[in-house]
Amino acid sequence: MIKLHGFSASNYYNVPKLALLEKGIEFEEVLSYSGAGPKYKPEYLDKSPLGKVPALETPDGFISESRSILEYIERAYPTPSLLPTSAFGIAKVQELSQFIELYFELAARRMIPNLISGTEPDSNVLKEFETNIKKASSALSNLSNFKQFAYGDQFTLADIAAILNLPVVRSVGNRFLGEDPLSQVAGLDEYCARMEEREHVKRIRGDAQADQPGFMAHLKELYGL
Q: What is the dihedral of CA 142, 104, 7, 58, to 10 degrees?
């Protein structure tokens, strides 16, 4: 049985976890929190070179980085597919997924430590976030109308990217800008409400909430937060 190493409070960990659940693949979860520098558990570096989560343990060895893990899952377990059948459709799903990761999640990630610790971000970082998110939000409608799924008429990797990354952006925006920076994206609110009703999304949210005390205790021990 394959094993997924990481922790449920991490959206990076939940990307392959949700893919495994949606595809009905049997897997074992192995709790592994990450840290920084010398406080990594040395043995975990054999699984993930920088000690980051997630890491997937397969019969052939370990794979790190969510995108690479998704590629393995899709090729090793092709049915049901989380990609369209056409080459163009596959490219568009990957395009939308990468767009969300690069221009939304990474833009917000710089202020996650502030969100967790209750501190204020650097004003220049906040201004950059506001500017970049406005541009990305305006462009997002060119890639998806969110009428049914993120792309096409089936649940795909693009939905996983949207479900697990866009809420982070909304949390950061509401906390530090005083508004939801994605509120004007046509169809997005209704789409998100539909996705939250999916069985495996509910599982992901519940597991993430249950893991929060352990994750916060880990941060306190590691950083004194």
A: 50
